[in-house]
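Thread title: Can someone regenerate the structure for this chain?

I was given the following input by a collaborator and told the matching structure tokens would be attached. They weren't. Posting the sequence so someone can regenerate them.
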Amino acid sequence: MFLKRLFDIAASIFGLIVFSPVFLIIAILIKLKMPGPIFFRQNRVGKDARLFRMVKFRTMKVNHGGSTISVKGESRITPLGATMRKYKLDELPEFWNILIGDMSFVGPRPDVPGYADVLKGEDRLLLTFRPGLTGAASIKYSNEEELLSEQQDPIWYNDKVLYPAKVRINNNYVKNWTFSLDIKIILYTLLGKSLEDDWAN
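Best answer:
Regenerated them for you:
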């Protein structure tokens, strides 16, 4: 675990420096095209079920009043926001969350209160790890917003089908964790490949 944290600190500092011009360009574009704050901050459930404040680039209209799940094509997502979400650029500020120890580069994606914090029994295993910028379940369901847009009831499908599947995959990741597995997940994320391991399906 020490090696995992050391990697997170070094890689997040590197990322914040290298992507600083991208941060600036995105911030300017948001100010020009999306009146309101540049960043979106929201409470998420982290390691040991502790809440932390996750920061992302804002991709939605201000005061949209929508649900906590996102569906591709929603009117509350702005055109610029849709582009950022497509290329995961909205998640770049999470490098800061990684640096200060709220998150890791690899781990279960952090959920809003009402999901991960109410898990019972062995399902809570995923809460023993810091949540991640990417992870096995994130790779498996990289098209999550598109998948939800195809459902008659996206919220039901998320709560009854997607979320339990992600919990299973994330807990299997925790059980099988090695530092080399983290590197593999990062590479697969960058290459847009799917994990073929039995536990990741």
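The mean pLDDT is 91.
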